[in-house]
Design brief:
Length: about 280
């Protein structure tokens, strides 16, 4: 069965997101844990969280994805910025325990001139501080486009991070189709890309896919998402992604420039393109 959803606003709480997802034909979704600036999150309402847990179970949702604020930088040169990332992610993970068994995705960070090696060291240090053996959330490294000094543009970099994290049984990877296209991995040769992913990282680490078209050409290192079929990847190749035997059971999440109606249309299009 296709598990497909999109990014939703969390402003009305947990259960409201589940209901919105149902209304647009989704059976997974993603949301920001707090506003992108990373400021204080709203108090958790345990009843609201429990209502969502119930809804997800009742409607056979795939795991949902909480996305860390994208402004956090665990690889910053500034200790205060790193501490802010650490405290925010730690708090997010504690809150995720109210909706156990789901995913928490973050952008590994930008080394801002310190070099990839130093950046990876800082990211691993942070992860080793915040992951616990008891947590019920899987933390995902997102594949990045490589704009600026972003870490995570190659499978090697992600593999290196995973290898140095002690609790890496609590970790996985989220593959963003726009980002890997912009990083230079050609989705037209999906088999080759997944073979390389398997060799470097291991396909069992792959827990979710961000399904986006890209405004820019292969290897552009830009990260500008396009609607499905409105970019340089195209509908046919994105359909091959949701149908690939190694991917087809994963949760797919749209982060395309759309309102809810647009998302509903893309979800219904992808359902038509999916071979059960
Ligand atoms: Fe992201
Ligand atoms: Fe993404
Ligand atoms: Zn992006």
């Amino acid at each position: 069965m296709l598990h497909i959803g999109c990014h939703l606003s969390s402003s009305d709480g947990f259960e409201a997101m589940g209901k919105t997802a149902l209304r647009i034909g989704a059976n997974t979704f993603q949301f920001f844990t707090r506003n992108p600036r990373g400021s204080k999150a709203k108090e958790i309402d345990p009843q609201d969280a429990a209502a969502l847990v119930h809804l997800l179970k009742e409607h056979h949702f795939a795991p949902i994805i909480a996305h860390a604020p994208y402004t956090l930088n665990p690889a910053s040169a500034d200790p205060k910025t790193r501490e802010f990332a650490l405290l925010t992610m730690q708090d997010d993970l504690q809150r995720m325990e109210y909706v156990p068994g789901n995913l928490y995705n973050f952008h590994p960070g930008s080394h801002v001139g310190q070099g990839t090696e130093k950046g990876i060291e800082l990211i691993c240090w942070l992860l080793n501080e915040i992951l616990t053996s008891k947590q019920q959330t899987t933390v995902l490294l997102e594949t990045m486009s490589g704009k600026g000094s972003e870490i995570g543009r190659t499978f090697e970099e992600l593999a290196e991070i995973l290898s140095r994290v002690k609790q890496n049984d609590k970790m996985g990877v989220c593959l963003d189709t726009c980002h890997i296209h912009d990083a230079g991995y050609s989705l037209a040769k999906l088999d080759n890309v997944l073979t390389e992913f398997d060799k470097k990282i291991g396909l069992s680490r792959l827990k979710a896919v961000h399904l986006n078209d890209s405004l820019n050409p292969l290897g552009a290192h830009k990260d500008r998402h396009a609607v499905i079929g409105g970019g340089q990847i195209g509908t046919e190749i994105l359909a091959s992604v949701i149908n690939h035997p190694a991917l087809k059971e994963l949760p797919f999440c749209l982060e395309t420039p759309n309102d809810l109606e647009g998302y509903a249309r893309e979800i219904s299009l992808l359902k038509k393109l999916y071979h059960a």
